[in-house]
Amino acid sequence: MDEQARIFQTLGGVALAGHTVPGGMAIPPPGLHDGSDGDAMKQDIGDILHQIMTITDQSLDEAQAKKHGLNCHRMKPALFSVLCEIKEKTGLCIRGAQEEDPPDPQLMRLDNMLLAEGVAGPDKGSGSATLTTAATASASHNDNSIEHSDYRAKLSQIRQIYHTELEKYEQACNEFTTHVMNLLREQSRTRPISPKEIERMVSIIHRKFSSIQMQLKQSTCEAVMILRSRFLDARRKRRNFSKQATEILNEYFYSHLSNPYPSEEAKEELAKKCSITVSQVSNWFGNKRIRYKKNIGKFQEEANLYAAKTAVNAAHAVAAAVQKSQTNSPTTPNSGSSGSFNLQNSGDMFINMQIPNGKSYQGAEVGANVQLQVDTLHHVINQTRYNDDVGGNTMYRSHGLDANGGWKDLVTPSSAISPTEGPGSEHSDTSN
DNA sequence: AGTTATGATTCGCT
DNA sequence: AGCGAATCATAACT
């Protein structure tokens, strides 16, 4: 221990002056068997060190030659490992202490968020994980709203940029790392650089690059957040449907009042007709059902209106059908026969009606076989024949209608609920 | 400005 | 997943 320290201090006293070596040296210089040629050896090492220290003052060719000479020197391996060890045990151990830090929680948050937003991770088509939960929420999987597709397009744009940038960073990182590694390997021939040190340097580079990556992730997250808030804002902006759309929806609703649950196909058709989305149709029916149920009285007028309208339409259709059938085959009677024609909106018009004089007509239903004329509207309203949902309308979907609080109960005339004093007399829905 | 109407969202249930 | 119910947010109305 002491001897070795002494050796290094004696060694020209150049580079290692003042350095003590903690822990002692593991590798004794080769050929140092006894003290017989010790002085010559010291001189030799002193020369080498001197040469190393003055190498930068020399010309390139001269230095190259010296470098080669040094590389081939018999003492080189021993001296190299000694220097490496000294280096290891001094400056580098400080840096080594702060290594292996746990994964940054901030980075983990960002990663999780990007994954959740569908920006990171495997591409799931143009959609994303949260789109279904955040953007469409109760909406159907088949949403085709403009905002939605816009959101998706923008999100995938962000995703693309993110991945391109990430790739660039990774590529740059790899290139730089390889470059530095090569450089260090090259230099390790003349400088005391251990593989461990190279490894450490690589990890430093990686850390630097990952901090850049974090910035990228952060800004991507911000972009997604901004996009999302904008999207949600846009959705919050309520625009009333067109009069025509409301008309179509109401027509369907009141003509299917006994079971206002349009099937998926019906919804699609309505959506198409109204130029709205399927989920909007679902929303509309959801709102309508609940609001109608809550305040039937309030909707009486509207119900009457649409009932009349449907009746008129039906009458027209019947008239047209009758005329047509009479023209085409005068021998075929169809008036009054069940299911002999196909009416667009005659599935099961099942309504509670109250005509202006206060007389209630509950449950007037127009079936597929009513004999209607425009001037017999009143007669239609007075009809009390209940249709059993076999009107043949393809848009119609039968729905669970039980006696315990089912939809039909609420509109069934036999329940003897006065339209004006039914459960709908409360106004809780519009209380806000 | 206050109220009502209405489309959308959220939550819990089945 | 679809529904009812409650609620939110905003358009439309008074």
UniProtKB/TrEMBL annotation:
Any one GO molecular function term: DNA binding
Keyword Repeat on entry: no
Domain Homeobox: 232-295
InterPro entries for this protein: HD, Homeobox_CS, Homeodomain-like_sf, KN_HD, PBX_PBC_dom, TALE_homeobox
Pfam families registered for this protein in UniProt: Homeobox_KN (PF05920), PBC (PF03792)
Residues in PBC domain copies: 40-233
Listed Low complexity bias regions: 323-340
Keywords of this entry: DNA-binding, Homeobox, Nucleus, Transcription, Transcription regulation
Any one Gene Ontology cellular component term annotated for this protein: nucleus
SMART domains in the record: HOX
PROSITE patterns given in the database record: HOMEOBOX_1 (PS00027), HOMEOBOX_2 (PS50071), PBC (PS51978)
Region spans: Disordered: 323-343, 403-432
DNA-binding region(s) from the entry: 234-296
Places the protein is found: Nucleus
Transmembrane segments: none
PANTHER family: HOMEOBOX PROTEIN TRANSCRIPTION FACTORS (PTHR11850)
Family membership: Belongs to the TALE/PBX homeobox family.
Name of protein: Pre-B-cell leukemia transcription factor 3
